[in-house]
Amino acid sequence: MERTRFWTLRNKVLIGYGLALCFIITVIVWSLINIIRLGNAAEAILKENYQSILAAENMIDSLERQDSAILLLILDYPNEAIQQFRENENHFLLWLGRAKDNVTIPGEEKIVNDISMGYSDYLVQFSHLQTTIHSDTGNAAQFYHETVLPSFKSVRQECIQLREINQNTMFDASNKASAVSDRAFWSVFAIGSISVFVGLILSLLLASLIVKPVLQITKAAQKIAEGNYDVEVQSKSRDEIGRMANDFNGMVKKLKAYRDLNFKQILSEKQKSETIIRSIDDGLIVFNSQMKIEDINPTAARIFETKADDSKGSHLLEIVKDEKLFRYVKQSFTSETMPPPEDPDANILTVTKGQSQQHYLFSATPVHSGEDAVVSMVLLLRDITRLKELDRLKSEFVMAASHELKTPLTSIGMSISLLKEKSIHKLDPKETELLDVADEEVQRLKSLVHDLLDISRIEAGQMPLDFDSVQMELIFEKAVAVLKNQAEEKQIELSYHLPDPLPSIEADVNKITWVLTNLISNSLRYTEANGYIRLSAELAGTQIYISVTDNGAGIPYEYQSRVFDKFVQVKTEKILGGSGLGLAICKEIVRAHGGTIWLDSEPGKGSTFTFTVPVAGYENIVERSEHENQ
To answer: For 8, 95, 321, 344, which has the most beta carbons within 10 A of its beta carbon?
Structure first.
């Protein structure tokens, strides 16, 4: 047990790198020892020999200068000669003393003594030469050549010998230092190589010890990720790696047992999900982020005239050949939540089969993996063919009823008008008031019938539109002129603003003017005195954005999404009248022009109605712009 505790992975790593550290310390210590030895050898060379060589050189130089001084004396320059000789004599004796103090080599002491004795003789001979020059000038030169010069050469030769013996000793010391350097280099190289080799072996052993089981565990984990649980990591060590391998094998066994336990349950749940998908009466398509179909129920397969099994793995556009639907589902992947469409028919897919048409309301629901990631999308196709048919029948009924009501209402109105003209003096005030109320109600019914006929014709595509190229200024002038008096009576500022220049629009002048007047009328109803109503227009791409802005009461938030529906009226404290069809007709007229209409409003701060109409001759504008850019 104690042995197992000792050979842990930590201790193995510490022992291995401890041995490598010991080798490194050995190399460092041995290198330092050799460096010290080399330093000592160099120091010995400088201390022991260099001073003697320097002394010999200076003595030779002083001796030669003294010989020159003797020649000056012979040439009859006594003062300069004596001065030069004595100065170099002192210099020579100084360096001779240093040479005596630095005797370190065998035989060097004898040479120094010989120099001293020889120089003493040389000085005695110089004194005799001086006497000879004063007594007998003719024999002075002969005395110099026969006596002084040989003594000079002897002393000089001894100095040269002193220099050479120290130089030879220095060369020997240098050779020894070189030998020490070579031995140090090869010894450090050998020890370093052994250390590197041993360290490499230890590193490989440790790497094999640690990495091999880890690689086995990694490969086993990859197999488990692929669904293969029949794996086992082999490890004979009893350290942490061995225990990790054993724990990993235990984990694999538990995972395998868990998989076997839940496989049938998962398979059952999958079958339930597939059964539910196939039993839904509405069309259902499941596809991934690459727009590849993962599942499709029989209802959806029948809608697109395909087989469910053959459709799996196909791209959505291969089955659903509708660009609008494809853009919708593609946007649902990027935005994850689809905004409500401005057009109620925007999310309706129409499929033509023979001479009949089927209509499906589609919606996409993202399937999340975790908190954020969207892994797939569920497209639901709800059959609303019957609802569309009911809507068509309702529109036809409204149109027919409106036609039927139009004639009797006209007759009733004419009758009331005749009564008011001919019997007005025969009626009392109460009867006259009743007749006026009946006339107002008939007029309101006639206006309602007229609006119903208009919206029915627009929805049925039977209202003719006379498209023409027209300037926005003309439309604004006509709309403002119609309601200018009403605005002045209520003390409301009615104005318009147009940027310059603004291209013409392609529209039916009367219908677009009617839209503007209807929007201005609504603003007049909800704007108090001293308020304002402003018309504006701006160019945005191929569309002109036309806006009607007021600072009236605004529209409550609960009505803003329904103001363009039929028979929707905003409830206020005032009874403002109206049929609730004006904005619905505006919407249909704008749609017939290929535009859209929307509302921006904040209760208490006013409203802005905006709609778009196409620019006239857009193709010519594009061509002209491209030509100018070139």
So the answer is: 95
Contact 599, 593 (CB under 8 A): no
Spatial distance between the Cα atoms of 544 and 189, rounded to a whole number of angstroms: 88
Give domain 2-210's CATH number out of 1.20.1440.210, 3.40.250.10, 3.50.50.60, 3.40.50.720. 1.20.1440.210
CATH 1.10.287.130 fits 391-459, yes or no: yes
Complete DSSP assignment for 165-215: HHHHHHHHHHHHHHHHHHHHHHHHHHHHHHHHHHHHHHHHHHHHHHHHHHH
Length of the chain: 630
Domain 281-383 belongs to what topology? Beta-Lactamase (3.30.450)
Report whether the peptide linkage leading into residue 501 is cis, meaning its omega lies within 30 degrees of zero: yes
Distance (Å, whole) CA 155 – CA 157: 5
Report how far residue 344's alpha carbon sits from residue 311's, in angstroms, rounded to the nearest whole number. 30
Which position has the higher pLDDT, 368 or 526?
526
pLDDT tens, residue by residue, 348-386: 777 777 777 777 777 777 776 655 567 777 878 777 777
DSSP designation for 435? H
Alpha helices per DSSP H over 45-148: 51-74, 78-101, 108-135, 137-143
- Give backbone dihedrals phi and psi of 525, rounded to 5 degrees, phi first: -65, -35
CATH architecture assigned to 465-627: 2-Layer Sandwich (3.30)
pLDDT tens, residue by residue, 21-50: 776 777 777 776 766 766 665 555 556 677
